[in-house]
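Hey, sorry to bother you again with one of my protein questions. I've been staring at a protein lately and its backbone has me curious. I owe you a coffee for this, so here goes:
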Amino acid sequence: MKVNKYIKIILITVITVSFFFLLIPFLFDISGYFFCKNLDKVGQYGDFIGGVLGTFLIFISIVLLYLTLKTQRETLKGQELNFHESCFDQTFFNLLKAHQDITASIHSYFFQIENYDNVITFKGSGREFFAYSVYDINKIFVSLNQNVFLEKFDSGYNNFQYISHQIEEIQKENIIDEDKKQKLEQVNENNNLKKINLTYNITNNIFQSFKKLDSSKEKQIFIYKLFYQKHKFAVGHYFSNLKQLLSYIDKYNLLINEINESNKNESIANKINNKQNTLSSFVEAQLSTFEITLLYYHSLIDSDLLYLVNKYNLMQNLNNDDISLNN
C-alpha cells in the first residue's frame, strides 16, 4: 500500500536526521570547537539541538499517527468490502442454484401425430422442455404460414374417415412409390399442424390476423404469444427467476460504489465491469442452445429482460437456424 511506503520513507528520514544531529557534537569535538572553554556556547547549542529535534520529532509523531489511522481506516474498509462481496457472492450462487432447480423441474405436455391420426402425448421435462418448445413454436409458424387455414385436428370418426379416404386416393394414384411416400408424409404433417392449431387454439381469425402483419419481429411476437399463453405457468416462472438473477448482478455496481463513495475511479469501474462479466458468464454457462432460443423469443415481450440480456451478451451463442422468420 502507498501509505505503508510513506511511513517507511518518513521513518528513514527521522533516523537519518536524528543521526545527523547526534553526529554534529562529535564533528565539533574533532575540530576543537566543541567542549571548548566557552561552556555557554555549548549550552546554547544543546538547547538549540533539543528544541529543534524535539519539535521535529513531535511533528513526525503526529504525521505517523495520522498515517497509521488512515492505514487502519483503509484496512477496515477493505475488510468491509470483502465481507459484503462474500455475502453478495453467496446470495448470487444461491440464486443460481435456485435457477438450476427451476430448470430441472420445469415441464409441460406436448403432442404429436403418428400414423395419420394417432395422437401421442408426452411430457417434456427439464432441458427437453425447451427443445419441444422450440419445435412447437416453429410448427406454429408453419401452420400460420400456410396459404389456407388447415382447421383444427379432430380425433372423431369423421376425421378418421376423411384421412382414410385421403390415404386410399393417394394409393390409387399412378405415381412412383417415392412420390406416394412424400404425399403420405404430407398428410401426416398436415394433421400435425392441425393438432398444433388445436393445442394453441389457433382459429381462422387468428390465422388472418397473422397474415396482416408485415415485419418479421411482429410475426415472431405474435407466434410466441400463442405459445406463451399455453405454457405461461412454466416459462413465466423460469424467466422471472432468470431476470431476477441478472438484475442482482446488475446491482453489484451499487454495492461497490456505496462502499467506495469517496474513491470512485477507473480501477473501481474496471473491477465492477470484470466482476459483472464473470458472474454473467456463470449464468450463460447454464443455458442450453434451446434455452437461448426461447430466451430470444421471451425477450421480445419483456423489455427489462431484453436490456439485461443484451447488456451481458447472453445470446451470443444463439442458433439462428432455430429462429422462425429470421432474416
Notes: The chain has a mean pLDDT of 80. Strands lie at 107-114, 118-125. The chain is about 75% helix and 5% strand.
